[in-house]
């Protein structure tokens, strides 16, 4: 019987699972979203939510607990408490989402999923729109410079 046997083993020994958890959480907080297998996404989503809940309120105890979970990575802990935690202060949970991908992994046909922070898709879309706007402005400036240069060459 599997009574009180919570969690997936993911075909790894305990030390490997702990390292995998740290790496997945670090990557998630660093990049905002990761592509992984569906089983890993479902397993590590609650862990990510608990760390974000820690980061909602800044105290020395909470910073040390988050650093312990994330393997004492100062940059990630700083980003977590400066950017990610305050962004979710008003939200009562549900900080991450899992999106299933249509195509499975090529090597073993494992189902893939995107584990992302809520609001990450909107932020990426906004950045892409801003980038497109900057590119449009640059192209307009280049065209106007070429026109001025062409007109200037004809005068001489």
How would you characterize this protein structure?
With 156 residues, the protein is mostly helical. It has two domains: 14-118, 50s Ribosomal Protein L17, Chain: A (Alpha-Beta Complex); 119-156. Helices cover 62% and strands 10% of the residues. The chain is built from five helices and three strands, in the order αβαααββα. It has helices at residues 14-31, 38-55, 60-69, 74-87, 120-155; strands at residues 33-37, 96-100, 112-117. It has a three-stranded antiparallel beta sheet with strand order 1-3-2. Helix 2 crosses helix 4. The model has no long low-confidence stretch (mean pLDDT 92).
CATH superfamily of the largest domain: Ribosomal protein L17
Q: Per the principal axes of the C-alpha atoms, what is the gross shape?
A: extended
Q: Strand order, biggest sheet? A: 1-3-2
Number of helices: 5
Enumerate the spans where pLDDT stays under 50 for 5 or more consecutive residues: none
The beta-strand count equals: 3
**CATH architecture verdict of the largest domain:** Alpha-Beta Complex
Radius of gyration: 23 Å
Helix content: 55-70%
When the domains are counted, the total is 2
Major β-sheet profile: 3 strands, antiparallel
- Broad structural category: mainly alpha
Topology as H/E string?
Answer: HEHHHEEH
β content, as a range? 5-15%
CATH class of the largest domain: Alpha Beta
Q: How confident overall, as mean pLDDT?
A: 92
Question: In the CATH scheme, what's the topology name of the largest domain?
Answer: 50s Ribosomal Protein L17, Chain: A
């Amino acid at each position: 019987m599997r009574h009180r046997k919570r969690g997936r083993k993911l075909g790894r020994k305990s030390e490997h699972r702990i390292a995998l958890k740290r790496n997945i959480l670090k990557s998630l907080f660093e990049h905002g979203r990761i592509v992984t297998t569906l089983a890993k996404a479902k397993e590590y989503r609650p862990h990510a939510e608990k760390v974000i809940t820690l980061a909602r309120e800044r105290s020395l105890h909470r910073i040390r607990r988050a650093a312990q979970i994330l393997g004492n990575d100062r940059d990630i802990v700083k980003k977590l408490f400066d950017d990610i935690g305050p962004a979710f202060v008003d939200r009562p949970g549900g900080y991450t989402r899992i999106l299933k991908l249509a195509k499975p992994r090529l090597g073993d046909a494992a189902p893939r999923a995107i584990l992302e922070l809520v609001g990450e898709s909107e932020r990426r879309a906004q950045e892409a729109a801003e980038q497109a706007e900057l590119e449009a402005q640059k192209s307009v400036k280049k065209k106007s410079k070429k026109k001025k240069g062409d007109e200037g060459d004809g005068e001489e």
